[in-house]
User: Which sequence fits this backbone?
């Protein structure tokens, strides 16, 4: 594993830290591939939740523009290739993995770094953090799912304003607008994020994964299609040991002990 990514397997959830603090954790190809490999390894190892954060004073400044210096290039880059090969598979992986992905935004999240955070399932941000759609400053379109996430969550008016002006959005405002789950004091961010990861990692994993799938499908489905999807997923959940355990614990007035197993 590249040292651009730090991985801590706690035994219940896996904590992954972007680790290029001297570059505000901006992405190069090495970090892309290492992050993707870390998420895949967490999924395949049976981890029941993932916590993503950044080292140093920032979460992620997006693409490392040092790799895009026009003075060092003989022709304009084909940025579609960067998206197709690196960013898009990463966003699809985060959205598609059937365990909760928590993001703790510890500082500035700019460009694709902001949209990487927004691809996660639950986002907490330190009060000092900011979300910046910085693409307009370099003549680009928001990517890594940014145009989708902003429009679906905030609506066209706010999405356009944030994207066209590159105005910083504070963590507090992002929470008030519903773009993220909550803003917390800087000193409390990681403790709260880890407690949340533990809560999710000890929950009914199959049900949580299917809940994630169902909510992500809802924006594209009709009500009828969503009702059918809920019925299909409820059948799967009802056959898991965690459902039996949850009902038994409720009836016996005790805390449930979920295993996350299918059978």
Assistant:
């Amino acid at each position: 594993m590249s040292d651009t990514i730090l991985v801590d397997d706690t035994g219940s959830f896996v904590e992954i830290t972007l680790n290029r603090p001297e570059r505000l954790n901006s992405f190069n190809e090495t970090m892309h591939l290492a992050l993707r490999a870390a998420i895949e390894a967490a999924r395949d190892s049976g981890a029941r939740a993932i916590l993503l954060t950044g080292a140093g004073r920032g979460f992620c400044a997006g693409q490392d523009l040092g790799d895009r210096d026009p003075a060092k290039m003989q022709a304009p880059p084909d940025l579609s290739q960067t998206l197709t090969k690196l960013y898009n598979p990463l966003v699809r992986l985060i959205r598609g993995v059937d365990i909760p992905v928590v993001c703790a935004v510890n500082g500035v999240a700019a460009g694709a770094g902001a949209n990487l955070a927004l691809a996660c399932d639950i986002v907490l941000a330190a009060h000092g953090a900011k979300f910046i759609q910085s693409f307009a400053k370099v003549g680009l379109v928001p990517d890594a799912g940014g145009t989708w996430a902003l429009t679906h969550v905030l609506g066209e008016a706010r999405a356009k304003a944030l994207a066209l002006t590159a105005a910083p959005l504070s963590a507090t405002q992002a929470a008030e607008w519903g773009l993220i789950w909550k803003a917390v004091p800087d000193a409390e961010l990681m403790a709260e994020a880890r407690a949340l990861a533990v809560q999710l990692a000890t929950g009914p994993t199959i049900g949580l994964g299917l809940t994630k799938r169902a909510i992500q499908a809802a924006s594209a489905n009709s009500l009828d299609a969503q009702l059918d999807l809920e019925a299909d997923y409820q059948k799967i959940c009802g056959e898991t040991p965690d459902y039996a355990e949850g009902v038994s614990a409720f009836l016996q007035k005790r805390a449930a002990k979920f295993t996350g197993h299918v059978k």
Notes: Residues 57 and 107 are 6 Å apart (CA to CA). The chain has two domains: 5-201, 205-251. The radius of gyration is 19 Å.
